[in-house]
Amino acid sequence: MQLDYIENINEFDESLIRLYDFDSSEAQLFKELIEEAIIKKNMKVNLAAIDFIEPRNCNMIMGIGKEDEGILSRDQKTFFCILTKETYENIVKLIQPFCEKETKAHQILYDIDNPIDFLFAPAGTW
Q: pLDDT of the chain along its 126 residues, tens only?
């Protein structure tokens, strides 16, 4: 599984953090990471420190916040994904189909008015 940041994906100057190049077993590992570390233990998770994730041009730290802020960054290198527990629980549901079978589909993991989307795409495309 690889992690990268892509700037200006459309005419609205929106960008995205992309998790890609993975199979159903890695999707399952990522889902379990969110369930166990973030939802159950309320831990912050540094994706660069996770064995099965290879950061390409950025890093992201995921954690629970009081409200859904989405993905934020000051330097376009280190990103912070700040979402409520409920939104993380919804992300787990959105990831589940990727754990059950191999697919080339993709999923945006949250719908927040924020210029950086979170793309989950085994094939890397959207």
A: 999 999 988 888 899 999 999 999 999 999 999 999 999 999 999 999 999 999 999 999 999 999 999 999 999 999 999 999 999 999 999 999 999 999 889 999 999 999 999 999 999 998
Strands 2-6 and 15-20: antiparallel
CA distance 106 to 122: 7
Q: Which pair of tokens denotes residue 11?
A: 């005419």
CATH superfamily label, 15-121? Sufu, C-terminal domain (3.30.1360.230)
Pairing of strands 116-121, 15-20: parallel
Distance of CA 109 to the CA centre of its chain: 7
- Distance, in Å, from the CA atom of 107 to the CA atom of 41, rounded to the nearest integer, reads 25
Q: What is the pTM of this model?
A: 0.94
